[in-house]
Structure formats: structure tokens, C-alpha cells
TrEMBL record, chains A, B:
InterPro entries: ACT-like_dom_sf, ACT_dom, Asp/hSer_DH_NAD-bd, HDH, HDH_cat, NAD(P)-bd_dom_sf. It is an enzyme of class 1 (oxidoreductase). NADPH binds at residue 103. It holds the Pfam family ACT. The keyword NADP applies. Pathway: Amino-acid biosynthesis; L-threonine biosynthesis; L-threonine from L-aspartate: step 3/5; Amino-acid biosynthesis; L-methionine biosynthesis via de novo pathway; L-homoserine from L-aspartate: step 3/3. GO terms for molecular function: homoserine dehydrogenase activity; NADP binding. The keyword Calcium does not apply. This is Homoserine dehydrogenase.
């Protein structure tokens, strides 16, 4: 099977290395050899540590869609639109199989691309787009396919998890750890896709579609990140028996689809609490299978290449079908659930003036909104006179939390915007 | 797609319930409805809590292999040979797809059955045979297919894990917990397949074949069970920072295939240490993907039915291929590795006389065999005058442990056969 690779960054060179290293084994498993025939990237001359001179260099990536000597195109350019999308459309329109690791493109254009694939009955595969090397696309699309799935959730961004668990271990603050992660190459120069939850939201919207048989609806994901999580939050959460993780949660509710990426408190004994460093993990709850848990390395050259080549092997074996587990027209269009109805315990952290009446004001706002308090922790004043006040609520509707915050919005007693995190489970 | 179910025990009725409950969703995902057309079981009249009068009753299960109105046969009889094997051969020989949950049959006859499937180019699927609802067959066969896998290991028998974790939680002994588990229906009246590690060994031999591209070699599995694990072992292990689990380990070593099912000490922070009750879990180590971890419910009506129907959906979608990931003739025949070469730390528990010189004798035997001791725990005498002596070694070759035990074999100082458990990783 002759493959064209477009994009020769970390993942692209990883795919070349993997196909070199495991060539014989892959041929046995795939039923035929899989070889790179042609490549294209922005820069032909950059030293990538792998020999690319043995492959055809395609000056125009778009020609790869039409070439008869290419059986599959692998898109590793990235970006939701632009060249990646143009290439994907051209490849599928030409009736050629496409493998991609591009979650942004799938979150925005996955259904239209799947329709193109359907029209020609050819594969559009994307295991590497979510959770790196963990076969969670396959786990949902096929492994759990017999189940009505009520929720799918997990740790979908390795950079955020690396930052949070480093903050946890070393007691350091976000900005400091982010800077170090950037220097080490674990975080991008522009960290917003990771740190603000957008990357995890792309992935979550894809998982939700597979899990629930619904149309991808990235626009309906409520997205939060980890910039507002402080070392103090991690410390207070630990004292209460929790760890803080950026978790994407999707639920198929009676009133619609609930999708949210947010920093949450995870109980110590929960499987997600043990997910450290750049690992990813996904849980799905099925009505017959119960809870399924998958974890592993969610990013990096090796794991992502592993997922890309797994897709190639499926194609070589002729084992593939509808990209989103069913025909696109079968995917249900569901409204966005009212997140205010979400019931759960909530962690609130206030930074307040060190003066009388502050706790009274906050407590009154919660009482007026009908929020019942489970515990309150107030630590002595900071160096700057500010006081950290942590409140954990009993089960409460999130709309009541919003009412509380609205009521406190103008208060002189608050030094900073309150930080709100749901408590998982 | 018209299905015949043979065997209407827990799993068979679970499949009927699942297909009833999730009918519409499954039709969307499978691309066509999946319906039970005919059934067969030993007893037609037994009340199973599901209506089977609406299905054809096949008086002779063998006729199902030949019937034109049956597209797939699901074998849920169990047993490595006998009727299950006769049915499987007849179905595949007739060119009809087969789904089975029968690990014993696959461990013994998997390759010859796979050859029959290959000859007709039809599916032989068996996701339910290993780890119940966890899609670990798919995870290895497809998800990790790009990798050279060095080891696959995990908790493969829910009954043993239930017994061990109950012993752990309640400080009770094996026989007592087994009896209770039998009364609750969690363990069979004849517990040997579970408690002696045979069931886990069946599953391990299947996983090893998929992971390594080798022929199934059940006869080469070293098999131990959990009957010799005492409440005292669990207590001592806990004091040392370990939990005891029955773990199946398969490694693709330079000198051959290492396969063993044994009670082992698992470090508290290892993912397998958190696997509680009847859950199962599997880890695989790939040369590009790194460590993959899957867990979930490994037995019971719902999870097993989920796996059976996932197979049916794959067949309905026409997404299937070689049962053991490659053509049978491509599977390597590997010798059995010399387990004496296995290097690791080992837990030894002796029950000894309470008199001078006992420790000296044991320590001398270990010294003579070249076994280096990491720690020794001796607790005060039992009520019956016996003393519990626990030794943890440094890394040592297992042949040296055997030499130690051989040397001690005739000793009057030992009250009972020593208990030996490897320490994981």
C-alpha cells in the first residue's frame, strides 16, 4: 500500500520511523507491505533526523490527491481550515482514502468530510486525532458499539495534564510551569489551544459524536482552561481529598447534549486522579458494558505515529466503514443541554479583603441563591492582605452558583474573580 | 442480519436483552438490524426471564450451521471440546460467520478454527472470550497493530480478583471468601478453572498470540492460582507496600515466549493495584505507543453481551479479517522461554518452627543459591507455635529461588510448603 505523507513535523517523521522499524511485522499484520511513496512539507531541506530523499518529493501537495501511484494520503499539516482542509477535500473527492490526526479540522468539518468519504465508500480515519496512541476512537466506534452510552469523559490534553501535575508535585504556579514546559518543548509558544481548553474541546466534540450517535457540535462545547488554577487551589483541593485535572465531559441528557471542558476536582480514588504527566485517559459509561477505562500516552511522536499507522493497517486490511460509526444522515442533531441544570458539588475559591463581613456577604449570597454549603476553609491573610476563602457546596444546580456569583459581582470585598470548579462524580 | 444463539445461560440471555434494549441504535450503527432468528440450548423450558418463544427453537444445534436463514452463529455453550467445538467446526466449514465467547476452545483449537475461517474468508470473532466487555482483543489486534509488543499482562479473572480484594478488605481467608462467593453466584461450584488460574491462562495464551504474532501455545503457560494465598500474605504484602493480584504475564523474549499466570505482589502505585472486585485490566507495552491500559468489567451478563454484540456489529458492517491479526501461517512458532532466567524481586513466605537456627538455615540456603535478601519480616509465633517468616529478595534469577527451595525441601524446620510470589515490575 503506497502512502503519501503531507506534513513532516514530529508526527510525520514518527510515522516514517515506525514504518521503518516495524516494517516486517506490519506487513504480516496488514496482509501487505505499507510504504511511504511520496512526501510533502513546507520545508524540503530541514534536517528531520530521517532520510526523506528516498521518497518522491511532491512540490504541490494537491497533486497527491490525483496520483495513481498513491493509495492513501496522510494529512499531518494541522489547522482547522486552510491547506489541511483543502487537501482533505481534494483527496476524498478524488475517491482516495484519507488518514488524519487533525482534531481541529474534524471538530469543524468532520461531518462534511465524512459525507465525501461516504459518497465514494472510502475510508476517512482519524485515530490519532484523539488521545494519541490510545485506541479510543476504535473503542467507541466499535468496541462499545452495542451500548447506549450515557457519558464519555476524560483527560484529553497532555500539556495541561503535565502542567497541572507538575504544579501539584512541585507546588509551583501556572505561569512558571508553563514557561518551563515551553522551554522543554512540551507546550507550544502560543499555549492558548492547550491551556484554554480548545484542543480538548475539539477532541471532546469528536468523542461525543461517536459515543452518542449525534452530529459533531464543537460550537456547543462550554470551554474553560487551566490558567486560573493556582498552586493554592491545588493545595486546598488536596487537603479536601481531590486532585485538579482538566477534564472534558460529554453527556447525552434528556434535554440535549452537554459538553464541557473545565478544570475539575477529581476524588483521589477516581481513575482520573492517577493520570499523571502527559498521559491521557478516557472513560465511557455504557448501558450494558458499564464503565470502560482507557489510558496511555496521548501525544508525542511514537504514540501518535502508532495511531496513524493503525489506521493505515485497517485500510490495508480493508476493515473500515463510516467514519462516525454510522451514516452521517443517521447522526442525530441534538440541542445543547441547559448547563444550568447540571447538578453536582462545586468548589469555589474567593480572594477577599481581610475585614469583617466578607464571609457574611458570601454566605448570604449563597443562601439567597439556595446553595447549601458543605465546608468552608479560610486560611490566614496573604502577604498582601488578601484572604483565601474556599467553599465546597453540597449538590446544587449550577444556575444557583451563577446566581451567587452574579450577586457578588459588584462587591468591594472580592479582590479577584472567583474561581469555580465542578467536583467530579 | 439473522443470528442463531446456541447456549442460553447468562451470556445468551444477556445478548437477547441487549439486542432488545438497544435495537434501534444498533441498527443505525451496524447499518442494518441485527435480530435473533433461532436459538438452541440444553433446556427449552427453563425460565430465563426473557421471552424465547418468539425465536425458532432448533432441536439440533448442528442444523444451524446449514440453515440458509441464519447469517451468523453465536456459540455460548463453553468447554474446550465436545459440542462447542463440533458446532464451531461445522459453522465455519459451512462458510458461516461464528462469534464465540469460548476462551477454552480458542486456547486449545483457536488456530485450527482460524484456518477454517480463512479458507472461506469469513469471520471468527471472539471479543467476549477475554476480559468481558473490555475491547482488548480489538485493542491488540487493531489498536496497537503498528507496534512490536514486548509484553502484555493483566488481571484476567474477575472471580479471583473478587476473592483477593475481598480477602484484602475484610482480612479473611481464601476458603471462607470462596464459599461466600459461591453462595452469591460469583464463583462456580467447581472453582478450579478460576482459582487455579486455568481460565486466566486460556485468556493469556490468546492475548499473547495477538500481541506477538505468535501461535497460541496454551500448553506453554506456567499456571498458578490463588489457593495458597493467605490473609497473612495479604497483610504482609500490604505492610511492604504491595497488593496481591492474580496476574497473567506474557513476554516476547529473545529465547522464546514467556507466559505465566501467578499470584504476584503489585506495587500500590501500579495501575493493576487499583483494580478492585470483579474488574479486569490489561496492559500492553508497544515499541512506539508505550504503555496502553484498558480496564472495565471482565465478566457478567451485560459486559459479555456487549462484547458479543460488538462482534456482531463488526460482521454486519463487514469490518473483519484474520481472527489472530494475520494469516495463521504467518504466526511464528516460538519455543517456551526458560522461566528460570526471569529476573525480578521475589516474595517468599515460610511457615517455620519456633526454634533456634531456622532463620540461619533459610538464610544459608539463599546465600548458597546466590539470592540476595532485601528485607525479612518475622512475626511472633502463631497460636500453634508456627512462625511466619517473610523474605523479600533483591533482583534475582528465578532459578536461584528454585535452588533455594530445593535445598530447603527436606527441612524439618518448615511446617508448610513455602509460598513464592514474584513482585511485579
Amino acid at each position: 500500500m503506497r502512502v503519501a505523507l503531507v506534513g513532516l513535523g514530529t508526527v510525520g517523521t514518527g510515522v516514517i520511523r515506525l514504518l521503518d522499524a516495524n516494517r516486517e511485522l506490519i506487513a504480516r499484520r496488514a496482509g501487505r507491505p505499507i510504504e511511504v511513496r511520496a512526501v510533502n512539507a513546507r520545508d524540503r531541506s530541514r534536517d528531520r533526523g530521517v532520510d526523506i530523499a528516498r521518497f518522491d518529493w511532491a512540490d504541490d501537495m494537491m497533486e497527491l490527491a490525483r496520483r495513481d501511484d498513491i493509495d492513501v494520503v496522510v494529512e499531518l499539516i494541522g489547522g482547522s481550515d486552510g491547506p489541511a482542509l483543502a487537501l482533505a477535500r481534494a483527496v476524498l473527492s478524488a475517491g482516495k482514502p484519507l488518514v488524519t490526526a487533525n482534531k481541529a479540522m474534524l471538530a469543524h468539518h468532520g461531518l462534511s468530510l465524512a459525507k465525501l468519504a461516504e459518497q465514494s465508500g472510502i475510508p476517512l480515519k482519524y485515530e490519532a486525532a484523539v488521545a494519541g496512541g490510545i485506541p479510543v476512537i476504535k473503542g467507541l466506534r466499535e468496541g462499545a458499539a452495542a451500548n447506549e452510552i450515557s457519558s464519555v469523559y476524560g483527560i484529553l490534553n497532555g500539556t495541561c495534564n503535565y502542567i497541572l501535575t507538575t504544579m501539584e508535585r512541585e507546588g509551583r504556579d501556572f505561569n512558571e510551569v508553563l514557561k518551563e514546559a515551553q522551554e522543554l518543548g512540551y507546550a507550544e509558544a502560543d499555549p492558548s489551544f492547550d491551556a484554554d481548553g480548545i484542543d480538548a474541546a475539539h477532541k471532546l466534540s469528536i468523542l461525543a459524536s461517536l459515543a452518542f450517535g449525534t452530529q459533531i457540535d464543537f460550537g456547543a462545547v462550554d470551554i474553560g482552561g487551566i490558567r486560573s488554577v493556582s498552586a493554592a487551589d491545588i493545595r486546598e483541593a488536596a487537603a479536601l481529598g481531590y486532585r485538579i485535572r482538566l477534564v472534558g465531559v460529554a453527556e447525552n441528557r434528556a434535554d440535549g447534549l452537554f459538553q464541557r471542558v473545565h478544570a475539575v476536582l477529581v476524588p483521589m480514588h477516581h481513575p482520573l486522579a492517577s493520570v499523571e504527566g502527559s498521559l491521557n485517559a478516557v472513560l465511557a459509561e455504557g448501558n450494558f458494558v458499564g464503565s470502560l477505562f482507557f489510558s496511555g500516552r496521548g501525544a508525542g511522536e511514537g504514540p501518535t505515529a502508532s495511531a496513524v499507522v493503525a489506521d493505515l493497517i485497517d485500510i490495508a486490511r480493508d476493515e473500515y466503514g463510516d467514519p462516525f460509526a454510522m451514516q452521517v444522515e443517521q447522526l442525530a442533531k441534538r440541542p445543547k443541554a441547559n448547563s444550568g441544570d447540571t447538578i453536582g458539588r462545586v468548589y469555589l475559591r474567593f480572594l477577599v479583603q481581610d475585614k469583617p463581613g466578607v464571609l457574611a456577604e458570601i454566605a448570604a449570597a449563597m443562601r439567597d441563591a439556595g446553595v447549601s454549603i458543605e465546608s468552608v476553609i479560610q486560611r490566614g491573610a496573604h502577604e498582601d492582605g488578601a484572604v483565601l476563602l474556599v467553599v465546597v457546596t453540597h449538590d446544587t444546580a449550577e444556575r444557583a452558583i451563577r446566581e451567587t456569583l452574579d450577586q457578588l459581582a459588584g462587591s468591594d470585598n472580592l479582590i479577584a474573580e472567583p474561581v469555580v470548579m465542578p467536583i467530579l462524580g
